[in-house]
Specification:
By secondary structure, the chain is α+β, with helices and mostly antiparallel strands. It has three domains: about 60 residues, 434 Repressor (Amino-terminal Domain), CATH 1.10.260; about 220 residues, UDP-n-acetylglucosamine1-carboxyvinyl-transferase, Chain (Alpha-beta prism); about 210 residues, Enolpyruvate transferase domain (UDP-n-acetylglucosamine1-carboxyvinyl-transferase, Chain, Alpha-beta prism), CATH 3.65.10.10. Helices cover about 35% and strands about 25% of the residues. Helix 10 runs parallel beside helix 11.
Amino acid sequence: MSDTPSSLGSLLRNVRNQRGLSKQSIAQALNVGVRAIDQIEIGERNPDLSLLNRYASALMDPADNGKVPAVNLSITGPTKLSGSIVVRSSKNAAVALLCASLLNEGRTVLRGIARIEEVNRILEVLESIGVQATWSDDRTELELIRPVVLDLESMDVDAARRTRSVIMFLGPLLHLFPEFRLPYAGGCDLGTRTVTPHLQALQRFGLEVHATEGWYKAQVAEVGTGLRTITLTERGDTVTENVLMAAALYPGTTMIRNASPNYMVQDVCFFLQQLGVTVEGIGTTTLTVTGRERINADVTASPSEDPIEAMSLITAAIVTDSELTIQRAPIEFLEIELSVLDEMGLRYTLSPEYAADNGHTRLVDITIHPSKLHAASDKIHPMPFPGLNIDNLPFFAVIAAMAEGRTLIHDWVYENRAIHLVELNKLGAHTQLLDPHRLLVQGPTRWRNQDIVCPPALRPAVCLLLAALAASGTTLLRDVYVINRGYEDLANRLNKLGAKIETFVG
């Protein structure tokens, strides 16, 4: 039998029907939307090996129907990595550009976007409301065409509730509907992540939102034109992106103060410029946007490389005491991190700078050399860009565990992430939780193998995977779905550098 996506999908559908299982129940078991099951069964989507194994597990064991067949990793160490690895494009930029594509009546092509679970969830939502999404044969380009009228009533609510990024639909949709509703957003479990800054800022465009019975219910009032100044109460990435998208279809000028200048915000700005929107002040905390009444353009955009993935790979080299080259690293968004690492004794070299595919972001190749580290002289804490990135902070817990002395990690943003990082103790680290935001790390660490379950937060989960690379013996890291939300094929890519990681289901 042919192994094409259509023949594979037909086989899965036939087995599902024979066993009396609904598409809804399989979708629930796999933690995906029903639309994803439709795509697999009609041959529009070729599932990766991990998803295929989970699908088969759900089909073969109906007693477990409704439970999520966990994808797990077996990591054998200690590992020495070598060679080079290319940084993939930004996950956060990808989901923002997917949301921003709703502004465009024309053809949007996104090149090189990350093929990760978070992107899959947003795509499922977009397709369910009528957006035509087509991958190129080599899966390097995604074409998006918005219908004349979006069908919000057909939204895949399950997929929407599995991602926090759906909140960024507010900015585009407020220009398209006088009233609409969106499901409450989910994503990582990091404590309360308020949407109040979004709602406060978007009120200036006539948006009123009431949260009730698991939905954001939105109504949009008419507003006048002319210059408006919006000062964000929180310098957040997603709130800045939301206001940018709202301003893009506002036929006047909007000045956004206290805006985030972070990497994914810059990618949205570059995309809006391609759509014909005037955006000034990119890379600063004051953005001036002159929008258009209508956007109908055929554009091709490339999100830049992910500085968080780059930092993950830097950490992998440090924890395994390896020489490793990280190619296409966005240096503008790693300079503070590298400065802190330099102070801790890390030896590294940088190539000359070159431009990313978006024509703007500055890239370098970073070669990490084996180094003897010592604790940072001051606490390590995040700050809004150009400070140390909040998403990079957890990696410093792993790095500090390798360093001689005691390091204070202060995560003042998220209530629960420092708690999740205490999981490193199971692998041999010596961490002490001072409060939900502060963590003391004593190094150096002699890492040991363990059987552990991923915490429900992306970066701490990856930290456990990286620490396991250095542990003696075989570590079982269970239920790695949260890692797949933010990283594309990470285990296989590390294996190509010398790691010994196997995937299993159950």
